[in-house]
Amino acid sequence: MSLAHNLRDVLRRIEDAAKAAGRDPAEVRLVAVSKTKPAQAVQEALTAGQTIFGENYIQESQTKIPQVGPHIGTSPVWHFIGHLQSNKARLAVRLFDVVQTVDRVKIAGALSRHAAEQGKTLGVLLQVNVGQEPQKAGCSEADAPALAQAVAELPGLKLMGLMTMPPFFDDPERARPYFARLRELARRMAPDLPAGTMNELSMGMSGDFEAAIAEGATLVRVGTAIFGSRY
């Protein structure tokens, strides 16, 4: 199947999942995860109408993003969705529109400083480790409110919401309680934060994005179902 066909199929599944949950499909946006895929594949997806792309690796993105550039008058929107080290914060600000994986004050401060230097406002989401898995990044649910308060006050950053990667299950329904926990965490945090800072929930990938949509996802990160297996 072609990339364009795969993309259409994923978008149809997103629409169907949103409708099944009684939601407006326009509330859910697709982040096409293009890590390890060449710039040509991103350009093909752009031609097919996709505009938001997610990358995991700064070094790879340094080469790929300039190669893609604006495409037929459309500039892609780039989300960083990998683990970010403080020493890569300057590059992350330069390359990306949104960083979804802020999980500590140190990295938020570095992003804020470099955003101010570059005269840019960077969208950020807080990564929360709802599964409490030691091998995964993300702040704890208990630490999320204080981190959100700190990030909301930093210049150059626009706090948008929360992101998570739940434990892997063969049955996507088993991930739903983790998605629900993220949604409820955002709901509890929102009254104590500036308006709009908890609007986005980035959760769900190729194997479980429909379950995530049922629990309130506004951004789903899908790679394999669009681009095929990683190289």
Structure, described:
With 231 residues, this protein is of the alpha/beta class. It has 9 helices and 8 strands. The protein has helices at 3-20, 39-47, 58-68, 89-95, 105-117, 144-152, 176-189, 209-214, 224-227; strands at 29-33, 52-55, 77-80, 98-102, 122-127, 157-163, 200-202, 219-222. It has an 8-stranded parallel beta sheet with strand order 7-6-5-4-3-2-1-8. It is globular, with a radius of gyration of 17 Å. The chain starts with a helix and ends with a helix.
Task: Give the proportion of residues in helices.
Answer: 25-40%
Q: Tell me the Rg in angstroms.
A: 17 Å
Stretches where pLDDT is under 50 for at least 5 consecutive residues are: none
Structure summary, number of beta strands: 8
Write down the overall geometry: globular
Q: Can you summarize the main beta sheet?
A: 8 strands, parallel
The number of helical segments is 9
SSE arrangement, N to C: HEHEHEHEHEHEHEHEH
**Percent of sequence in beta strands:** 15-25%
Structural class: alpha/beta
State mean pLDDT (0 to 100 scale).
95
Report strand order across the widest sheet.
7-6-5-4-3-2-1-8
The first-to-last residue Cα distance is 17 Å
